[in-house]
Amino acid sequence: MDDKHHDDTRAIHDDEREDAPEHAGVFPLFMTSSFGSESVEEGARIARGGGEGYLYTRMGNPTTDRWVKRIAQLEGAVEGCAVGSGMAAITGAVMHLVRAGENLVAANMLYSGTYRLFRDILPRYGIECRFANLRDFDEVESRIDDKTRILYFESPDNPLLRMYDAEKVVEFAHAHGLKAVFDNTFNTPLLFRPLEWGVDVVVHSATKYLAGHGHVIGGIILGRDAELMHAIRHETAYNFGATLSPFNAWLLMLSAETLPVRMRRHSENALAVAGFLEGHSQVEWVNYPGLPSHPEHELARKYLPDGCGGMITFGLKGGKDACVKTLDSVKLVTHQVSLGDTKSLLMHPYSIMFETLPDDERSAIGILPEMLRLSVGMEDAADIIADLQQALG
């Protein structure tokens, strides 16, 4: 595709002007577990990865590969690997890059599923995670030794919506011989392309904005190094078996076509809602990178010039009781986990995301009882605000 085309076009059209089978207007769903081959020799060649073709959907599928190509071109990746969920993407990338007896350093605020994986599960397999404040490079350096392999982070992080200086974090990682791995779920490639800032591997929970309608579970791993990505794909998809359903890939491919429009609307709505919350008498604080009051607003201007996405975190003056009252009172906004849907979703991270952590550990990483996380949807912003107004009282 012409490099001069904009994202709105690239989200709809592939790099290569190849026709779908039978010139179908929508690329077909290949809902099959396996594929035939013309000969034993051809089958063996495909099995060795020696050319085009398919044998078994766990190893590859035309529908899945078409979606991967679409997202890879938006992300600026040379290759990608589709997997069954966002956690499969994180697990696959990290467990390929870090072996037993080695360790990784990660930001001390991460999505709760990632946090639990790193804190509780990976040590069972001999992989240690060392958490650090990525704004303090002396602290980060103190966590690194000759067995450290990757530096892992999100920005903005989930759920606090704090940002890191990604360029400096990546430079630090590379200066110490580490791979930089970044979760780009909140931003999507429409708002931020980590690979352009030197990140080595990007992961997404495609369940969120890449799907956008709350109808699909999926994940994707993307990278700048074709050899590395081939190895990750072979290990994660072939051997771990974290296969994305072709049907889900087909749905995700349809969602990709509206991603630019959706991300603009999410960002516009979230900025309006964040401004409302910041001025509400019952709201103690608001974290939204697009607000001038955000501690890393200048970083948002640098890394997210086209919009800061649809996620807001805010604290209520009445603490947990006020959060429960608000969640029980919303009518348009839905009390629901997940994020990135067309519908606005509100949840209480202290009770839902980090419920298994002791109180002191939750407090130490900033997960407070008075905090709510809002995924701002695509409804009219005035209607979202009106519902929050009546719920907050």
Under the CATH scheme, the architecture of the largest domain is: 3-Layer(aba) Sandwich
The share of residues in helices is 25-40%
Specify the overall morphology: globular
Cα separation of the termini: 52 Å
Stated plainly, the CATH topology of the largest domain is called: Aspartate Aminotransferase, domain 2
CATH class of the largest domain: Alpha Beta
CATH superfamily of the largest domain: Type I PLP-dependent aspartate aminotransferase-like (Major domain)
- Widest sheet: strand order? 1-7-6-5-4-2-3
| Low-pLDDT sequence parts | none
Largest β-sheet summary: 7 strands, mixed
Helix count? 15
β-strand amount: 5-15%
The secondary-structure class comes to alpha/beta
Structure description:
- With 393 residues, this protein is α/β, with parallel strands linked by helices.
- The protein has 2 domains: 7-30 and 61-256, Aspartate Aminotransferase, domain 2 (3-Layer(aba) Sandwich), CATH 3.40.640.10; 259-392, Aspartate Aminotransferase, domain 1.
- 38% of the residues lie in helices and 15% in strands.
- The chain is built from 15 helices and 12 strands.
- The strands form 2 sheets. The chain has a 7-stranded mixed beta sheet, sandwiched between helices. Strands 8-9-12-11-10 form a 5-stranded mixed beta sheet.
- α7 (166-175) links the parallel β4 and β5 (179-183).
- α3 runs parallel beside α10, α4 (86-97) crosses α9 and α11 (259-278) runs parallel beside α15 (381-392).
- The longest helix is centred in the C-terminal third of the chain and has 20 residues, at 259-278.
- The radius of gyration is 21 Å and the shape is globular.
- It starts with 6 loop residues before the first helix and ends with a helix.
- The mean pLDDT is 94.
